[in-house]
Amino acid sequence: MRTLDDIREEYEFLEGDERYRLLIELGRELEPMPDALKTDATLVRGCSAAVWVYPTAEGDALHFLADSNAAITKGIVALVIAAVQDRSAREVADMDIAAALAPFDLKNQLSSNRTQGVPNMIALVRDHAARIAAG
C-alpha cells in the first residue's frame, strides 16, 4: 500500500475526474478482505455505501483490512487506512486522522453523500486501535 504522503503528492497534481480515478485505483489496491470478515461488527455505520474495516495486530503494529461495495467509497476508506496502516495501536488511537486527511479536502472534492461516512470510518479505526491498545 502506498503511503499517505505518496498519495497526497500525486493527488495534488490531479484535478476533478483524475482525482476520482486515483481514489478508484487506491480502492482496487486494497488488500482483499475475506467475506467472512464482512460482519455487522466490522461495518461502518452512517456510510451511504457498505464499508467494512477489520484490524489485525502484527507485533506492535496494527494492520487493517477494508472493503466497500462502491468504488469511490472504497478509495476513501483506502485513504483512511493509508493514514494508519502498520502503526502502533496507541499511535493510531491518539492520531488526528482527520487532520492527516485534511490536505485531500474531501468535503470540497466529493459529494456530501460520498464523504458523510468519513468521520465514522475514522471513529471505527480509532475505536479498534484504542481497544487493542488497552489490551
What does this structure look like?
By secondary structure, the chain is mainly alpha-helical. It is built from eight helices and two strands, in the order ααββαααααα. Strands 1-2 form a two-stranded antiparallel sheet. A hairpin with a 2-residue loop joins strand 1 and strand 2 (61-68). The longest helix is centred in the C-terminal third of the chain and has 16 residues, at 118-133. The protein is globular.
Key structural traits:
135 residues; mainly alpha; two-stranded antiparallel ribbon; 2 strands; single chain; Sufe protein. Chain: A
Largest β-sheet summary: 2 strands, antiparallel
Count of DSSP strands = 2
SSE string, helix = H, strand = E?
HHEEHHHHHH
Task: Please list the strands of the largest sheet in the order they lie side by side.
Answer: 1-2
Quote the average pLDDT.
Answer: 91
Instruction: Quickly count the domains.
Output: 1
- The proportion of strand residues reads 5-15%
SSE inventory with pairings:
Layout: H1 4-12, H2 16-29, E1 51-58, E2 61-68, H3 71-84, H4 89-94, H5 97-101, H6 106-109, H7 112-115, H8 118-133
Antiparallel strand pairs: 1-2
Helix pairs in contact: 2-3, 3-8
